[in-house]
Write a structure and sequence with these properties.
The structure is a single chain. The protein is globular and about 60 Å long. The longest helix has 26 residues. It is built from nine helices and 13 strands. It starts with a helix and ends in a 17-residue tail after the last helix. About 10% of the residues have low confidence. The protein binds Deoxyfructosylglutamine. The site of Deoxyfructosylglutamine has 20 residues, from loops.
Length: 283
């Protein structure tokens, strides 16, 4: 090793040490103008300027990963649009089991939870929600041959639910004679349905529509209204600045027709709800 190499290595080591010290200083600073508070980070995001979003990789067409692994879907595109309107230009989605999303938002691992998450009083005890942006049905999917069309038809049957969903709590309350089989995600529930280990699976309406389109011997057997629990963006309790901004962006996206455009793109053929359309078109 010649002198120059040694000098270069020492310089590199010194630079690395400075970088480590600088990082440590940032990490320990709890107030002032560091990146996690104040004017540089008005929304109190984990990383200023970036929204870290807990979501799901298999809730098509709400939120899912496409063939190249990128998150897309109605909720994903709507959230990105809303974030951009309020100055958040980078959004990073991470797939989680549904049951992990709200706890992860609550404990600060993510800034936001976005996955057709219905707003309920129970969930509001752990996170805050934006205004609602989507309301629809919970749908029981079953083989056409099973001829399931009402609650009594599910008696003594095995019904798949994703852990932590409204489907799980609805079924536990209203289908007392049905055996619930809990899954971490919809794809595993549908696999179990296709292999015959469960008799039906309970999902969101638009997801059910996708699966029925994909597997021709399945049908949408029952639709249960869930309009009292519209989906909202979940944020950590008390992050009122972020919540107010998201609501403002959401309202703008509804008023200028962006919401409608995304609805038509992702839910083609589904009835167009009135409440999220521009006020001028509601008549
Ligand atoms: O309550 C509905 C809402 O009306 C709309 O249809 C979108 O879905 C819901 O928010 C219900 N979604 C389930 C839940 O919140 C499951 C979400 C999921 O599988 N990603 O538990």
């Amino acid at each position: 090793m010649n002198k120059n190499t040694i000098a270069r290595r020492l310089t590199a080591a010194a630079a690395a040490a400075v970088a480590i010290l600088a990082t440590a200083a940032c990490g320990s600073s709890s107030s002032g103008s560091d990146a996690s508070s104040g004017k540089d980070n008005p929304y109190h995001l984990i990383d200023a300027g970036t929204a870290r979003v807990a979501s799901m990789g298999d809730a098509k067409p709400y939120t899912f990963t496409d063939a190249s692994g990128n998150f897309t879907g109605f909720d994903v595109e709507l959230f990105k649009d809303v974030a951009k309107r309020v100055g958040i230009h980078k959004v990073v989605f991470t797939g989680q089991d549904f049951s992990a999303i709200l706890p992860a938002v609550n404990n600060g691992q993510f800034d936001v939870g976005v996955a057709a998450i219905g707003i309920t009083p129970e969930r509001k005890q752990t996170v805050d929600f934006s205004d609602g942006y989507l309301a629809g049905y919970l749908t029981v999917i079953s083989p056409k041959s099973a001829n399931i069309s009402d609650k009594a038809d599910l008696d003594g049957k095995r019904l798949g639910v994703v852990q932590g969903t409204l489907q799980e709590s609805y079924a536990a309350k209203h289908f007392p004679d049905t055996e619930l089989v809990r899954f971490p995600d919809n794809n595993s529930g549908i696999s179990a349905l296709n292999s015959g280990t469960i008799d039906a699976h309970f999902a969101d309406y638009e997801a059910a529509k996708q699966y029925v389109g994909q597997y021709k011997d399945l049908e949408m057997a029952m639709n249960i209204p869930s309009f009292d629990a519209p989906a909202g963006f979940a944020v950590k309790q008390g992050n009122d600045v972020l919540l107010a901004a998201l609501n403002k962006g959401l309202h703008e996206a509804m008023q200028d027709g962006t919401w409608k455009k995304l609805y038509q793109k992702w839910f083609p053929g589904s009835p167009m709800p009135k409440q999220y359309l521009p006020a001028s078109t509601q008549g």
